[in-house]
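PROTEIN SPECIFICATION:
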Amino acid sequence: MLKVRVATGAILAAVVVAAVVLLPLAWMAAFFHLVVLVAAYEWAKLGGVETRLGFVAYAAIVSATVALLWLFPAAWMTGLLAAGVFWFIAAGVVVRYPASASLLSVTPVALAGGVVALGGAWLALVVLKAATGSHGDSVGAWQIVWLLAAVALADTGAYFTGHRFGRRKLAHRVSPGKTVEGALGGAAAVLAWSACAAALFDGAIMNWLLLGVAVVVAAVVGDLFESAYKRTRGVKDSGGILPGHGGVLDRIDSVLPAAPIFALLII
């Protein structure tokens, strides 16, 4: 299973990096629009939607939200702030779980949260891609690559460190397999990556280290928030489309909060 997971991850990484770096802004936005729609289906399922009409209606709402954000750049900052507020609230939901399970089980609340979370992450990638350097180069594309790599390092570092040294549970009521030691291992990997970023992009190393900390915290919140949803619904994965990874939402749960938080701090 580990070999399948690694192979799938490598293919996904190559496709996503190519889309971010090689595609022009509009085409990259369309690519991630499709990703968001698949994730919306899985979010709707976790939120309690059970009919085909319900899935189609929810996908249409998410798609319309993304389209409106694309058409009205003046609303981009408001959209990012809304996503940031949502994930701040989500962190409180994770901390209070299982007392907060009753809130997660309310379908309209769950679906509204998905619109903000999915739309906010898509918007963050678009805003970052649109950023250009002093010579007109799309520095934002490489910042997206750095961000996605940071999230992957947080996940990979947490997995291997937790497997080897994990003792103290991080949030046993939400995800019993996650440990404090694992989270610290993931954070160490991201901080090392942040130090590299200071040499690649403008900015002091301390600023990038703080950005790294923010990305790690956001990634952990996103991972645990989806785990809370899955535990509330009694499912292991959000889907089965990605061999070794489960669903698309299982793969991007940490990116959903990390992207808007990173965008808010760096733009």
Observations:
- The longest strand covers residues 175-179.
